[in-house]
Amino acid sequence: MDVYSGLNPYFGDLHSHCGISYGFGTLKEAFQNARERLDFCSVTGHAFWPDMPAPTEHNQPIIDFHLKGFAKLKRLWPQVLKECAEASEEGQFLTFPGYEMHSMSDGDYTVVYRDFSTPIVYAHSLAELKTSLLHQKEEQGHDFLAFPHHIAYRRGTRGINWDSFDPRFSPLVEIISMHGCSEGGPFARPFLFVMGPADGEGTMQYGLEKGYIFGVLGNTDHHSAHPGTYGRGLTGVWAESLTRQAVWEALNARRTYALTGDRIHLAYSLNDAPMGSVLAPTPSRELNITVRATAAIDCVDIIRNNELIKRFSACDVPQQDPGDSVRTHVYLELGWGHPRHSVHWDVDVRLSTGRIVSVEPRFRGRETLSPLEHNGGTTDTLYYSRCTSVSERSVHLVTETQGNPNQVTNTSQGICLEVEMPLQGKILLDCNGKKEAVLLEQLLKRAFTGSPIDDLESPAWRLHRAPLPWESCWRLSYSEQRDERDVYSARVRQQNDQWAWSSPIFVQT
Residue 389 pLDDT more than 80? Predict the structure, then answer.
């Protein structure tokens, strides 16, 4: 797709937390975890809440830990800026300092700064925050991005207030995080937290219906020093390079897309304009979509004005013989066993032949949100997972898992390898000293499982079925004739229930 020529997909998390306010773990630990999985990140502190509810017997503990966290961030902010600057490395891994404001009336907002010398702007309202940040930018050159998050909560309970939303102030909106999915209804990920269910007037689709222009983000809002924790949200950007200037430009241009977890490559254009564009009216509309997924694709949707107008499935894609050698994704997942038993994993993954093209760690952090849920707040309760070595044919990783706490919450750890190898090549596993070998030709047909311990309720590993090339790499097009003002976007779902949503493209009359 020519419009994306010279651009690369990079992946990040611009809204996560640690112990710099009322989360857990240190900033250093957060950046160390982020480097395993992300190209860029912002570890945001909880800063202030101008319309905090009046104290009651029920909410006093909630108010107390918020106030304590706000004071902690204010005290640590100079050190936060220093550590952010030290952790950032052009071309390798980028950090952006940030914080968030809670608001009952207008919804919560994240503020992310481009540079490392900007003070927190404290405000009594969203309107005052906007005025102060714009003044700071104009007078002192401190550039920023502000975006609402977990927008689908009910208005008045920290969900978005579209009446006070300003796309000049907030070019992007977070639509997926650990709280749930805010696309529209029905929801790909429901809101299940104590703050309540998703409300239709808080969704992305409702904002588009009201005529706002914005792009989309996916972030984790994780609270335990683990930006990019797998499956809770991810942002993709199309940028010229992994530099602060290039990524910042891509974010402001809305060349962004939101993901649940897998690093899906989604390129989407309308009349040769990339996602996030605003186009002049034209009666001829040519849409092109390229998807490079990490698992078999279930469907690709084209949405116009919040309505599905075209769904592509495997029935629309020509099946091709893979030949003697394929490029595919090998996903190893580790976990299961008893939920109260921790298991340390020491794992080698090797290819008998061929090469590893890329490595995508799928590591998760501890699922703890509030200090009231945590058992003491010590860092030894956090998850730490590492790829300790990567070569052309092997990866070594160490991690820790506990069994799933229930039948719907996945706490596994994993790694996904993009490989090029012959069908007769083997994936060789060494899991805690127990060796296994799986033929790639067989892995293209079905999943394989095993365990380092032969016992009931034992931990286990799973090699997911690897997708055939035609199942995971699609090039699609759709055209129509229209004269109306329209909003177009693309949506991808893999068969493993991992999703991607493009920023919209706007045709203005």
Answer: yes
- The Cα–Cα gap between 508 and 199 comes to 28
pLDDT for residue 2:
86
State how far the Cα of 150 lies from the Cα of 217, in Å rounded to an integer: 11
Give me the helix-helix angle, 60-87 and 27-37, nearest 10°: 60
Q: How many residues does the chain have?
A: 509
H or E element: which one contains 27? Answer: helix 27-37
Per-residue CA distances from 254 to 40, 277, 284 (Å): 16, 7, 23
Give the DSSP H/E element, type plus range, for residue 389: strand 386-390
pLDDT (tens digit per residue) in 120-144: 999 999 999 999 999 999 999 999 9
Q: What CATH number is given to the structural domain containing 199?
A: 3.20.20.140
| 176 phi, psi to nearest 5 deg | -145, 135
Q: Is residue 315 part of a domain?
A: no
Q: Which of 213, 228, 261 is the last residue of a domain?
A: 261
H-type helices in 172-321, by residue range? 204-209, 244-252
Q: Are 341 and 444 in a shared domain?
A: yes
Confidence band of 380 (pLDDT split at 50, 70, 90): very low
Q: What's the rounded Cα separation, in Å, for the pair 459 and 205?
A: 42
Mean pLDDT of 173-196: 92
Residues 346 and 255 in one domain: no
* Structural domains of the chain, count: 2
Residues 6+ apart with CB under 8 A from 194: none
Rounded Cα–Cα distance for residues 374 and 65 (Å): 12
Residue environment code for 210-219, b if the CB has 16+ CB neighbours within 10 A, otherwise e: eebbbbbbbb
Rounded Cα distance, 206 and 201, in Å: 6
15 and 118 in a common domain:
yes
Cα–Cα distance, 338 to 482 (Å, whole number): 57
- C-alpha span between 384 and 413 (Å, rounded): 10
The pair of three-digit structure tokens given for residue 509, joined into one six-digit string? 């009359």
Give yes or no: residues 234 and 351 share one domain: no
Based on the fold, state whether residues 248 and 351 are members of the same structural domain: no
Cβ(34)–Cβ(13) below 8 Å: yes
Q: What is the DSSP string of 352-383?
A: SSSEEEEEEEE-------SGGGSSS--GGGS-
146 - beta bridge partners? 111
**Could you give the C-alpha distances from 49 to 79, 214, 254, 390, in angstroms and in order?**
22, 25, 28, 44
| 55 and 204 both lie in a single domain | yes
Question: What mean pLDDT do residues 378-402 have?
Answer: 84
Q: Name beta bridge partners: 129.
A: none
Q: Is the pLDDT of residue 381 over 60?
A: no
Task: Report if residue 488 sits inside a domain.
Answer: no
* Per-residue confidence (pLDDT) for residue 374, from 0 to 100: 58
Structure tokens at 300: 């690709």
Domain boundary among 221, 242, 261: 261
Residues 360, 249 share a domain: no
What domain range is 388 assigned to?
A: 325-467
- CA–CA separation, 221 vs 204, rounded Å? 18
